[in-house]
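User: Structure with calcium ion, tokens only please.
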Amino acid sequence: MHLTWLLSAALLGLATCVPIERPKEKQEEETPPEAPDTGLYYHRYLQEVINVLETDGHFREKLQAANADDIKSGKLSKELDFVSHHVRTKLDELKRQEVSRLRMLLKAKMDATMEQDVQVDHLSLLKQFEHLDPQNQHTFEARDLELLIQAATKDLENYDAAHHEEFKRYEMMKEHERREYLKSLDEEKRREEEAHFEALKKKHKEHPKVNVPGSRDQLKEVWQETDGLDPNEFNPKTFFKLHDTNSDGVLDEQELEALFTKELEKVYDPRNEEDDMLEMEEERLRMREHVMQNVDLNKDRLVTLEEFLKSTQKKEFNEADGWETVEETQVYSEAELQRFEAELAAQQAELGRQAEQLRQQHQELQQRQVELDAQKKEFQQVVLQMEQRKAQKQPEQAPHAGPDGELKFQAQPPHAAPADQTPPPPPESRAGGPALPDAPALQNQVEPLQNQQHHANPVEH
Ligand SMILES: [Ca+2]
Ligand SMILES: [Ca+2]
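Assistant:
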């Protein structure tokens, strides 16, 4: 598997200096000088684990003797028990760093999506990361190496499929945007734009014939133009050794892809408006898949010399007629594009619907605020009137003068006067303002008002 070379390759970093002629049974081991980015989100961790394991003589030796199955089955992981204490300490440290990195990722995700103060079960969340053992967050064990290998194998297998899907969506989006743009133009402009588009498309198609990847013609062109060798002396075995750049006895995906550069340059030039470099990357991936499909007999994503030589015996190797490039391939059907556009339209409609809902809510809240303000004003006015009335009543409650003008003694303070002694309010005060509600009624009005004001608070934020 891809991972096999990745793991054992990096583990066997020394193999770069191993002579080209290696025993046949050792050909399963692979070693690029530096492992390219796998695109895995734990790539760095994987790489660091490999780098550390590589420093252990015992482990390196075991790896050299291991085959792809030993690595995948977890047999190799068991050898971790025998690596030096120093190496184990380093691995433990790497694991703690990885756990802490994942915790930070989780926290950032939670902060972005959830309310604060929510109790988080980190252990159960860590379980979603399949490349390490969540039960033990402190030391790196055989189980961790096994899980790391399993996760990387699975993820890398899905990687190409995901890339194709992403590319397809990219192409559909490009076409969708082009069609939308055309719709926005007037008749004359649209015709101009369409003519321009067709001209670019035609220009992009004008390129020398692209050879079928992995065919005699294709390899011979590399032999002649890249390697500068005589085409009449083309020799598959020599070719294989020349392009096994890290001399590990196998052509890995990167070494294969390097062979396609010449073909890709025929079609794609980053200086041209009509050449899309993302299409070039898709083309490179398709070429590699094509070769692997025909040549990699045991499906371990590596080409051994034996597999390579067998492929050169095939009829297709010698009689390939031409490669269908991305632009000649129907990446998506019209029906798929329509589904994609419908999906986009549904997403947009949903977003629009949500925006409209928010707008309406906002409007309602604003309206509610206006009503509350009016109620508040009215209430304040009522309170003011009550106070005025109270102030007007004060002089009447002052000690009454007797019939002869003498002051009568008032034993109780005016506010404590018995109800039956309180004189009715002067008629003019009732006639003046709006009718004054009774005290309990007023009380009832105050209560809901306060509640309403409380609910209305979000508006102010
Ligand atoms: Ca190689
Ligand atoms: Ca193979």
